[in-house]
Specification:
Blueprint: E1 3-8, E2 15-20, H1 23-32, H2 38-42, E3 46-52, H3 56-67
Antiparallel strand pairs: 1-2, 1-3
């Protein structure tokens, strides 16, 4: 099943939102810094939230919704 997920590098730190069909493998890739990009550059490797979705299209839509959230929640 497809998943939407959030990673961070520390409390109140940088957030990364992603989509995958294999959550365990993808989190391992982030933690091991196997793929160049945003998460490797910012050390974003702590899974803080995930949501199973019925389709990859639904996961991508959820990712889009999350990216529209305001970041400053103070």
């Amino acid at each position: 099943m497809p998943w939407a997920y959030l990673l961070t590098n520390r409390r109140n730190g940088t957030l990364y939102v992603g989509v995958t069909s294999d959550l365990v493998k993808r989190v391992y890739e982030h933690k091991s810094k196997l793929v160049d990009g945003f998460s490797k550059r910012y050390g974003v490797d702590k899974l803080v939230w995930f949501e199973e979705t019925p389709s990859i299209e639904a996961a991508i839509e959820r990712e889009r919704q999350i990216k529209e959230w305001k970041r400053n929640w103070n």
